């Protein structure tokens, strides 16, 4: 679970649930605001997974499964 409440429910708030130094986090960075148009979730520019930041090449649809 990615939310603070989910982490609290699983008694894992020390590990994840909020963005803080020392906690686990997987992130997506978008070029466009999904609050304006939900299709903007497709504008992924970077992914941070298991501590590694990767730039996304949208031409081959990587990470869009």
Automatic annotation (TrEMBL):
MF terms (GO), sorted A to Z: hydrolase activity, acting on carbon-nitrogen (but not peptide) bonds
Segments forming domain Amidohydrolase-related: 1-44
Residue stretches spanning the membrane: none
Pfam families membership: Amidohydro_1 (PF01979)
Protein name, UniProt field: Amidohydrolase-related domain-containing protein
Organism: Algoriphagus machipongonensis
